[in-house]
Amino acid sequence: MNTPLSAEQLASWREKLKQGREKLAEHFARQRDPRWVMKRATDMVDVIIREVWQALALGERAAAIAVGGYGRAQQFPHSDIDLLVLLPENPDQALSAAVEQLIGALWDVGMEVGHSVRTLSECMAEAAGDITIETTLLENRWLIGNAQLHTALNQQLEAHIDPVAFFEAKQFEQQQRHNKYFGVANNLEPNVKESPGGLRDLQTILWISKASGLGDSWGALVEGGILTAQEARLIRHSEHQLQCLRIDLHLTAKRREDRLIFDLQQQVALRWGLQDSPSRRASEQLMQLYYRAARLVSQLNGILLPNLKSRLYSQVRQVSHVLNERFRTLNGMLAVRRPDVFEKTPSAILEGFLLLQRHPELTGFTPKTLRALWHARGKINGAFRRDPANQALFLQMFREPAGLTRGLRRMNLYGVLGRYLPAWGRIVGQMQHDLFHVYTVDEHILMVVRNLRRFASPAFNHEYPFCSKLLNDFERPEALYLAGLFHDIAKGRGGDHSKLGMADAREFCQTHGLPPEDIDLVEWLVGEHLTMSAVAQKEDIYDPETVQAFAERVGDVRRLTALYLLSVADIRGTSPKVWNAWKGKLLEDLYTSTLRMLARGGQVDTESELEERRNEARNLLRLSLVPDGVEEKLWKQLDTVYFLRHEAREIAWHARVLNRFVDTDAPIVKARISTSKEGIKVLVYTPDQPDLFARICGFFGRTHYSIADAKIYTTRHGYALDTFHVFVPEHFDGDYRDLINYVEFELAALLTRQAPLAPPSGGRINRHLKYFPIEPQVSIRPDDRGNYHVLSIVTGDRPGLLARIAWVLSRHQVSVQSAKIMTLGSRVEDSFLLQGGALNDAKRALQLEGELLDELQLQG
């Protein structure tokens, strides 16, 4: 008969656990010693489990064994407790009931128990089929009960384990885990345990070492010659930082939380004694410390795993081939011919990366070579950087036909790139809380260089064929790659990073002996790398005067092509969600129209341009089998402004759809899939009515469709002819025909009713914006021609934002002539062309700005 537990006993253990955790938190706030905290947390759990075991009179009938992180005495404050209850073969019903009572009591006490209840044979069968279970069992510690069962478990594990198979399985498991976390340590909410460079990478090394009989501590690896004393010090330092972070996360969240989520980053940073500065939040400083610790772990993981592998595979036959007096190949890897090559010939550091570029069949450096290179990084100093031979080697990497991105990533991972380019060293691990970059600055730059190189690779010509053609025709493309490398290198210094980066780029190009025209190009691209995307997404790129101003700024075709390619690569390198085909079409249209403008000497001939556009529209109408002259009825009601604002495809579509409804009394709403194949184009044609723009925005806001672009036009006979580019929600996976039918019917019905306009409801802001808010900015100014006013808004995005802006404008009887909606992740940069009497009155215009600002503050 099992002994029941009283409520008083459970309450006593629950209070002991609560007080123990409170003491741990108090001590850690003073001492910051993670090993002490983990050991005391382990001891506290040990005591309670033993007391419950004894209270249930389980005695020697089974064994309680700590496994996993709990087994190695690394219990974090709120981690689950890995407990194995090892049963004898054929346990009786009374024992099973007592064990069930044990597990239930531990949960009642407040422990999250990740338990397994198995016999010895069941343990071995499970371990044979699951590497995770085998690893968990490998780290075991007897707590209480039948010690003989525990001894038998270790004996069978030792006989069962195959070090080579274990190594292969753990290496594959690590690759799978890294892939799950996007393969880089630099996502904005990393998991300090599981992400690349996290604690799990360190544990993987020790698991393999223990399974191989080489020891289960850093000290043992030093004694075994796997690890140097210096490497051990660096590992312990990074491990200490990651353990502190994980403890702080648990204590701050008051639960098991291993992710550095936005909600906790600032609070954890304050626990570390970090403070906000004028240029950087405390959380950004904390995250850079994390990224650098994770990078060091990744570096040493990349050195130690191959070293362990070479120890396990020491009997493998060596196949070698001499490359030159310093390097040879060894079993498909690059190896130095003498251990002191990097020490005696430091330029060999760069030569090694260049050789890996030229020999893609090589998978990397051999373990000994990699270790020697890593320890020789200190040779990269001012004299090294000034050496013309080293400069030539580094520059040659950018001129090679393949392998640049892989080479730069390797150099960054092992700290070589940051030493050769000190400015680069300052951006490693630097966060970007601008709500659209999902990578740190260094990782973003490498993504941009990767994107540029993909344009040049035949294997990726199908992705962006137009960009691939331009790059393959581009003379000396290394200038473009260098511009990509330097375009954001001055971020985080304060001031305009584009201007600051220009000086870095020019100095580099001059010292590395680039031709004068390439020096000027690289410097100019770094300074102007944001210009083309801003013009394409904020200005009317179908207006010849806009194109003329951009052409004057660009100057020549080579600069235009380089800026276009860099802009596409840059936007694509911010986040998978920021780039879309619509933005790609805007950039391509701006490129082609600017190219034509430059071919004409940069001169605007508005009449010729408009006639060309009309003729192109007529040709499109004929291809659609629309009879000759049908378009004239509509076109008589349209002035030059209309033809300036719309491209030929839109002009033709409008004429084809509206030629029979030019004088209609009922609203006409037509929609089609956009030419970019992302979202839909919506045409609204109706006798003008009050608050029309606000009603349309309200409709799309309620349906959670996002307006990306709006062209508002009023015909000579008082009709609104408005065109919207609309994105549907990301989760939409239905038939676009149903969507188009819905929009056409429901929006037309809404405009027919003309119900009183009501303020639209807002939506929830996302977590990123909540913890890293954008201070809203509103400005109203006359446009360059004095015909309209330009409203510019910068704020954080949320559902219904545009509808609320339109509602405020309608209250002041201000009409919208066009709208450019630029959404970058959670950051919105919108521009509106406005008309209205309130705008010409300074006092009323100021009042409008204030109300818009109030509305945006509420949105945040």
Task: Summarize the topology.
Layout: H1 7-31, H2 34-55, E1 63-67, H3 68-71, E2 81-87, H4 93-109, E3 113-119, H5 120-129, H6 131-138, E4 140-145, H7 147-160, H8 163-180, H9 199-211, H10 218-223, H11 229-253, H12 262-271, H13 282-312, E5 320-322, E6 327-330, E7 333-336, H14 341-344, H15 348-358, H16 367-375, H17 382-386, H18 388-399, H19 404-413, H20 416-420, H21 422-427, H22 441-456, H23 465-472, H24 478-486, H25 497-511, H26 516-528, H27 531-538, H28 544-554, H29 557-572, H30 581-599, H31 606-623, H32 632-635, H33 640-645, H34 648-658, E8 668-673, E9 680-687, H35 692-702, E10 706-711, E11 719-727, H36 736-753, H37 767-771, E12 777-782, E13 789-796, H38 801-811, E14 815-824, E15 827-835, H39 842-859
Parallel strand pairs: 2-3
Antiparallel strand pairs: 1-2, 1-4, 5-6, 6-7, 8-9, 9-11, 10-11, 10-14, 12-13, 13-15, 14-15
Helix pairs in contact: 1-2, 5-6, 5-7, 8-9, 9-13, 11-12, 11-13, 12-13, 13-16, 15-18, 15-19, 19-22, 22-23, 22-24, 22-29, 24-26, 25-26, 26-29, 27-30, 28-30, 29-30, 31-34, 35-38, 38-39
Features:
single chain, 860 residues, alpha+beta, Beta Polymerase, domain 2, Four Helix Bundle (Hemerythrin (Met), subunit A), 8-stranded antiparallel β-sheet, 4-stranded mixed β-sheet, 39 helices, 56% helix, globular, nucleotidyltransferase
